[in-house]
Amino acid sequence: MEDKILDSIIKRVEDEPYRKKFGMELVELEYGYSKVKMTFKEDMENIFGMAHGGAIFSLIDEAFETASNSHGTVAVALSMNITFIKPPSRGDVLFAEAKETSVSRRIGTYDITVKNDVGDLIATCQALVYRKKDKLPFL
Amino acid sequence: MEDKILDSIIKRVEDEPYRKKFGMELVELEYGYSKVKMTFKEDMENIFGMAHGGAIFSLIDEAFETASNSHGTVAVALSMNITFIKPPSRGDVLFAEAKETSVSRRIGTYDITVKNDVGDLIATCQALVYRKKDKLPFL
Amino acid sequence: MEDKILDSIIKRVEDEPYRKKFGMELVELEYGYSKVKMTFKEDMENIFGMAHGGAIFSLIDEAFETASNSHGTVAVALSMNITFIKPPSRGDVLFAEAKETSVSRRIGTYDITVKNDVGDLIATCQALVYRKKDKLPFL
Amino acid sequence: MEDKILDSIIKRVEDEPYRKKFGMELVELEYGYSKVKMTFKEDMENIFGMAHGGAIFSLIDEAFETASNSHGTVAVALSMNITFIKPPSRGDVLFAEAKETSVSRRIGTYDITVKNDVGDLIATCQALVYRKKDKLPFL
């Protein structure tokens, strides 16, 4: 059963310290695809009382991490280019979706978008991983 | 006295919810320049027990936010391109330095680097703001 | 008739020196959308006899330029993030498609992809313009 | 003599079709460093009579290509993030300088800047290569 990989990631994410810090939830995970949910809460505010860029990026990176490791070998983030489109409102439920745009032996590329629960586009991201030969250590 | 702007930002950052969430410290702030410090702690770990990309980005974004707002008018982040060079070790004290590379009437550009306390390069970032006419609301 | 804008751009592109230099063709132009065609020829080769990154980027930028100026006011490119997926083969006919992902009063964002004529993804790009108030000077 | 690598690249660049297309000159080449010169000419103009983004990027990419291949093994461009700071004037002599910011077994990262001959910053770029094991084929 190949789904052992996805199951292992789901379980591992459950215990991930950074995920807990933000109250993020892994909503969906497929090979090369992931969807993660997070509510924009008060402790994520910046000096203007808006969502800190770091919070939005963290949500993006969680989707990216899970999607890019879904093939069962370790994926190392190389670069990420984030564009901020529209600031979310306090209390907004945000969803990041990571989709694989290409995958070769050593490199994987991903498009990640963040939307709120009425579908407004909040941010987009283009990201790149280096794919190691090593299997995920927690399989 | 123009330093009123920098003083206001420093005070505001002191109370910033997101800064507190990460235990970040604004070490230095000048016009177009900022240095922020953060210790890589357990609650910042990803599924591999390494620093989550979101944590490193958050540190970068804090330096970017403070440097780009240092001229006293509101700067809105448009895009950020982060390259991950070397993962930090648990307990590492990390420093992000944001330097303005250009500033025009409406656009500001910044280079941000993250290093650990022995000077290893952890990540680099190229970032862009839109500069509004509005004064910082908390001046 | 609003199509005067698109017609003016199409005519202007016809005379554009850089377009001619590469033998690019504007295949389709709508508000916030553009498709440009280019054949990868010998004079676009790099030191490995492959397509120079500059040639692929030039095609992307042509689609970006035309799509972002299609609203009739001057759009100034701020930043572009290109990811190279797969090198084209000599003689490949390449198509760049630029799609607007968001447009506000002052900022527009675009996703641009390059494919060859059998649909292989060659490169992707995320790009940003500053939208001036000025009408296109050649309208 | 290790300079055989640099000499081979210099010679190969001399014959590079794309370099000739733009009249670029490789001014300096060291391990992990390159400087390339180009004059902004009429055939590089866009629909506004300004320098086409593709021309500026081409100059950047030429410096990036030569710097990243200077270690003697094949470097494949993965991603490049360009920020446009100031448009050059017709006739401007432009210089792109590529500096290696990090190099590991498989990945190299570079900062590239473009300046005109009075030192104005025209554009900056952050770029990434995948380093193959293969030696340069023309050594």
Physical arrangement of strands within the biggest beta sheet of chain A: 1-2-4-5-6-3
Biggest sheet of chain A, open or closed, and with what strands and sense? 6 strands, antiparallel
CATH class of chain A: Alpha Beta
Q: How many runs of DSSP E, i.e. beta strands of chain A?
A: 6
CATH topology of chain A: Thiol Ester Dehydrase, Chain A
Which structural class matches the secondary elements of chain A? alpha+beta
**Unreliable stretches covering 5 or more consecutive residues of chain A:** none
Shape of chain A: globular
Number of helices of chain A: 3
- Amount of beta strand of chain A: 35-45%
CATH architecture of chain A: Roll
